[in-house]
Design brief:
Strand content: 5-15%
Structural class: alpha/beta
Radius of gyration: 28 Å
Shape: globular
Distance between the termini: 24 Å
């Protein structure tokens, strides 16, 4: 028998045999439904327009539902128009009204079509769950329309009167918007973001706002997310890194308009110190135009160089504080011969592309000048005091993790560090050697400590420094390379000097037996289990495929970021897991002026349809049903007294 004290607590929610039995029936029925559709995205990199389009279009699935429902009735141009209305109802209704097309006939036909798509999208859910997703002001009406019996003449009249009243009371626009948003809401049941929301693209803050509005989302942190999380803890190296990358991609809007980071002190410092330096190697990549905070490219290059040199200094200080990181080979400011203009990297000398270092003391290369110290202090405070940034970072913590086991799948951004022989790579953690799942769990604890420990806690500084190590350390599972060659990319022409060696995981994980070993390490053995990760763009134009290890591994970073699309040939992937199959949606480069529906291909069919009972939620419901059965038995034995419902 379940613990009596626990059953008494349960009885407060279900105070009678009738109430408990009713909930048993409800939960048992839910277990008999098909599982909801899960969507997996990776490496969003601030590309908010493309991501929002994919989210609202369900990566092409809504377009497929329209085709299945109306493909034999209405022409393709009307199907596309209906799809675009569902994705962006406010924008498209405004256009319809301005064009004089928002007639009563159009409203009646459109509402009918949207109701049919709603019926299709809601068919796998309980009526209760669907109703909870409806806007309260229209919940009753939508519920009636979705479940109307068209074979009943009286019901058809009733249906017609509802539509007539909606149009007659001039709320059709609001009702259409509500239907469109409900369709979006119903099509994606669970949303998984496999890391790297931030950097490169223009507005990661807008993506975060969108995710915070979504009904069921989880995030597996990527190295770029960790860098921003580290900056929010006040880690100076992470602050510099975030600023450096944003400036290098001309992303001033996300810093100043998005998060209120005051860049004026940096611009003034850079303009003064690098006044006569063209900073050619630091010219920003202009993939997107700033709307609110346009910065002259020449000044941006100076700001870029200024923050980069400060970053190399504070990174060097972290390396000196932590010899256990074994990163002395990254102390490249100390490896420069400032007289000859060369740098020694791994026993080889290279000429520098830029030899102007006005703030570097050759005797103490890692020492900040007084002006740099003051500037860095100001910038760190700006990150520490950004209200919106911390709201987003707290969401990353509350809805995120380093990895997630979900419905038989293992989700993580980068890799599980491995050695060439296929064993898990060990890392010394507080005097103990950890690897595999134990290492991932330890790292997760440190990430939590870096943000949530008080500033006076003795472990705080080490945890905060460790956030920077996760960005670029050789044993970091979110980085997965032997070194970060940022310095070489700026200062050395020889590309061989800047080559980064991938962790053996990336080759080994293409073998079925290695994936199975990893899945077993995380408690997910079985034929239907998969690994889903991102981080490394899949170059489809070079013949690469996101499906690896005979279908055990999906790498879904296909280049949503514009910075990668020339290398990949596409604009990323969505992995879609419904009750019948796994499918990949191949994204087209986003263009707001043309139809961009992804190409969807089924990559694995389920042997049997996956029901809620087969999922993690189903296992929770099974345990809950057992508890409720014990409660009913306790009521009937008289161990617990029933109270009035």
């Amino acid at each position: 028998m379940r613990d009596l004290a626990y059953l008494k607590l349960l009885a407060k929610e279900y105070p009678s045999v009738k109430a408990a039995s009713s909930e048993i029936i409800n939960q048992t029925a839910i277990c008999g439904l098909p599982k909801g559709t899960e969507y997996f995205f990776s490496d969003l990199h601030g590309e908010y327009e493309a991501f929002i389009y994919l989210l609202r279009s369900a990566s092409g699935i809504i377009r497929e539902k329209i085709k299945e429902t109306f493909g034999h009735i209405i022409p393709e141009d009307e199907q596309i128009e209906l799809a675009n209305l569902i994705y962006y109802p406010n924008r498209n209704l405004t256009r319809m009204i301005q064009a004089g097309r928002f007639t009563e006939d159009w409203q009646r036909i459109t509402i009918y079509r949207l109701v049919q798509i709603c019926k299709e999208a809601s068919s796998k859910y309980t009526r209760s769950k669907v109703r909870k997703k409806m806007p309260p002001e229209f919940a009753y009406v939508i519920d009636e329309l979705i479940h109307v019996d068209y074979n009943d003449e009286n019901k058809r009249v009733y249906y017609g009167e509802i539509i007539h009243s909606i149009i007659d009371t001039q709320i059709a626009d609001k009702f259409i918007i509500a239907l469109c948003e409900l369709i979006q809401n119903l099509t994606i049941d669970n949303l998984h973001i496999i890391g790297d929301i931030f950097d490169r693209g223009p507005r990661a803050d807008i993506i975060m706002n969108e995710l915070m509005q979504f009904h069921d989302v989880d995030i597996q942190w990527g190295n770029h997310d960790i860098s921003w999380m580290g900056a929010a803890t006040g880690n100076p190296a992470c602050v510099c890194n975030v600023l450096r990358i944003a400036i290098s991609y001309n992303s001033f809007d996300v810093l100043e308009d998005g998060y209120g980071i005051n860049l004026r002190p940096l611009s003034m410092f850079a303009a003064k110190v690098y006044r006569d330096d063209p900073c050619t190697q630091f010219a920003p990549k202009i993939l997107d135009q700033n709307i609110y905070d346009a910065v002259d490219p020449g000044l941006a290059a100076k700001m870029h160089k200024a923050i980069t040199i400060i970053q190399f200094k504070v990174e060097g200080q972290i390396i000196r504080r932590h010899p256990g990181y074994r990163m002395d080979n990254r102390l490249l400011l100390e490896a420069i011969d400032y007289k000859t203009g060369t740098v020694k990297i791994e026993d080889k000398e290279y000429p520098l592309l830029d030899t102007s270092f006005p703030t570097v003391d050759p005797r103490h290369p890692l020492r900040l000048t007084k002006e740099e110290e003051e500037l860095l202090h100001t910038l760190v405070l700006s990150f520490r005091h950004s209200t919106l940034l911390h709201r987003h970072i707290r969401f990353l913590y509350s809805h995120g993790a380093l990895y997630k086991c979900c419905n038989g799948n293992l989700l993580y951004h980068g890799c599980i560090p491995m050695l060439e022989d296929g064993s898990f790579e060990e890392m010394s953690c507080d005097g103990e050697l950890l690897s595999g799942k134990a290492l991932m769990d330890y790292i997760s604890e440190q990430i939590q400590k870096a943000y949530f420990l008080g500033d006076d806690a003795p472990e705080k500084d080490n945890a905060r420094d460790f956030m920077w190590y996760l960005w670029c350390g050789a044993k970091s599972p979110v980085f997965g390379k032997d070194k970060m060659t940022t310095f070489e990319h700026y200062f050395v022409e020889d590309k061989a000097a800047g080559k980064e060696q991938m962790n053996p995981y990336y080759q080994l994980s293409q073998k079925v037996e290695v994936c199975e070993r990893i899945l077993e390490e995380f408690g997910l053995p079985g034929e239907s289990s998969h690994i889903i990760n991102g981080h490394v763009p899949v170059k489809i134009k070079d013949g690469e495929t996101p499906v690896k290890a005979n279908g055990k591994l999906f790498v879904i970073d296909g280049g949503l970021s514009k910075a990668y699309q020339k290398r990949t040939g596409i604009a990323g992937y969505t992995l879609i897991y419904n009750s019948r199959h796994l499918a990949l949606a191949e994204h087209k480069p986003f263009d707001p002026n043309r139809e961009s529906t992804p190409k969807v291909s089924i990559v694995e069919k389920m042997k049997n349809r996956v029901m809620v009972a087969d999922t993690d939620k189903g296992h929770e419901l099974s345990e809950s049903i057992d508890d409720l059965r014990e409660l009913v038995a306790a009521f009937r034995r008289g161990d617990i007294k029933e109270t009035a419902d």
